[in-house]
Amino acid sequence: MKLVIVTIVDEYKKDVLSLFKQARIENFSESDIEGFKSPGTLQLPASWFATESSGADSEMFFSFTDEEKIEVLFTLIKAFNSRLKSNNPVRAVVVPIEKYI
Q1: How far apart, in whole angstroms, are the C-alpha atoms of residue 74 and residue 42?
Q2: pTM for this prediction
């Protein structure tokens, strides 16, 4: 069992859900996050309660799943990224799990 983490900009959400389905990864979690491109674009808020966000609306998906399914997912993500015309590819990482209950 391994942990796969996938980050995307919001516009790819339906596409990534389809990729998870094609890879037969049926159990996963999702979280809204803010993505930042580089430290140079990071703007600190002028006040503690700033109302304007400086990041991009993004999503993070993660799943504890089998390595075989992750390999399929990575193949699908590579193919998806090769067709993109933007500079916001789908990013994915795998983290080994030493113990779980």
Answers
A1: 30
A2: 0.81
In contact, 42 and 36? CB cutoff 8 Å: yes
Q: Cα(30)–Cα(42) distance, rounded to whole angstroms?
A: 24
Determine contact, residues 65/1, Cβ cutoff 8 Å. yes
Residue 92 phi, psi (nearest 5): -145, 145
pLDDT in tens, 12-23: 999 999 999 999
Distance CA 12, CA 95 (A): 23
Q: Which residues are 55's β-sheet partners? A: none
Of 36-45, 55-64, 70-79, 87-96, where does the model show the most confidence? Answer: 70-79
